[in-house]
């Protein structure tokens, strides 16, 4: 599946034209071409490499999955690897969509893997700012990066909300709630670790694009890239703080469970001590030897009185010490 666009002198001229016509359009001065390929096959990579003269190492990186977010520089083009992120608002589970992009002086080629990178949202950003199209390929790259960083930001926000909900369950006594806190905290920690791997390298990616020697971002686009860079920094700092927060939640949950277990053991031990007193009295009076009151009602009432009095004394003694 491919999509194409042609911008000429800052205006959108054509959409969804045949890929074979790209060579003619990129040769025209003032033209900027966008080509998008979703889930490409080997033939697609060969076509792209031949059409745009791409370096073999860059094409190999685009073929291989699970690349680290990065920006590689070659003689005639740049290679960008990044990820769109999606978080399930119910479970906090995170999924990613890998995006590889080749950036030449007048063309942007995007290669998407999986369904999690919605190209329509990127196209909408381009259409919402047609006045920026005059800046050429830097305008297209900005729309792509702005969308990807926004998915990171939304993912961090959703995870933050999930952690807040989790904090409300920390001091619940229900066994179901305790189990939910454990499962959810581990799921959120796993999602944050994955998100950190995606978000943290983007700081260097955007920073490298802003550099003047890369010659992708001109003065007119610099404020827009600075805004994207600011969002990257905020998402990175937010992710780091959430990792610390979810770790604190997990530690607090263990502490609360430990305190709850100590309270239960304290109560069980106190009741066991109370029960031990009548057991000791009955054991003593159950000896097969004569004792005061042996064989008469006096012995029965004496033992019963001892059990009641000692048990009550122990109960109020433990109650005063908050052991029961």
UniProtKB/TrEMBL annotation:
Q: Which domain of life is it from?
A: Bacteria
Q: Where in the cell is it found?
A: Cell membrane
Question: What are the GO MF terms of this UniProt record?
Answer: cobalt ion binding; cobalt ion transmembrane transporter activity; magnesium ion binding; magnesium ion transmembrane transporter activity
Q: Which GO terms describe its cellular component?
A: plasma membrane
Stated membrane topology is: Multi-pass membrane protein
Question: Pfam families recorded for this chain?
Answer: CorA
Question: Family assignment?
Answer: Belongs to the CorA metal ion transporter (MIT) (TC 1.A.35) family.
Q: What is this protein called?
A: Magnesium transporter
């Amino acid at each position: 599946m491919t999509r194409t666009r042609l911008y000429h002198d800052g205006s959108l001229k054509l959409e969804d034209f045949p890929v074979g016509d790209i060579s003619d359009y990129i040769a025209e001065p003032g033209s900027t071409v966008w080509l998008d390929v979703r889930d490409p096959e080997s033939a697609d990579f060969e076509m792209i490499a031949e059409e745009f003269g791409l370096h073999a190492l860059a094409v190999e990186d685009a073929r291989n999955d699970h690349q680290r977010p990065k920006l590689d520089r070659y003689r005639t083009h740049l290679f960008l690897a990044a990820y769109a992120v999606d978080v399930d608002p119910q479970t906090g589970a995170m999924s990613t969509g890998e995006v590889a992009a080749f950036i030449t002086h007048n063309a942007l080629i995007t290669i998407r893997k999986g369904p999690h990178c919605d190209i329509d949202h990127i196209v909408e950003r381009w259409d919402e700012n047609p006045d920026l199209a005059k800046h050429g390929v830097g305008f297209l790259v900005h729309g792509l990066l702005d969308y990807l960083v926004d998915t990171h930001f939304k993912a961090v926000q959703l995870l933050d909300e999930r952690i807040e909900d989790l904090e409300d369950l920390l001091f619940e006594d229900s066994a179901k709630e305790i189990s939910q806190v454990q499962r959810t905290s581990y799921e959120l920690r796993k999602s944050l670790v994955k998100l950190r791997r995606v978000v943290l390298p983007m700081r260097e990616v955007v920073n490298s694009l802003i550099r003047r020697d890369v010659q992708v971002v001109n003065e007119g686009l610099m404020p827009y890239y600075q805004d994207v860079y600011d969002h990257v920094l905020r998402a990175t700092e937010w992710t780091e703080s959430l990792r610390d927060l979810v770790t604190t939640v997990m530690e607090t949950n263990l502490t609360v469970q430990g305190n709850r277990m100590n309270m239960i053991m304290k109560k069980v031990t106190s009741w066991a001590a109370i029960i031990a007193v009548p057991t000791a009295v009955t054991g003593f009076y159950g000896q097969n030897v004569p004792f005061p009151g042996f064989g008469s009602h006096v012995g029965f009432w004496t033992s019963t009185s001892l059990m009641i009095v000692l048990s009550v004394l122990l109960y109020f003694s433990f109650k005063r010490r908050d052991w029961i």
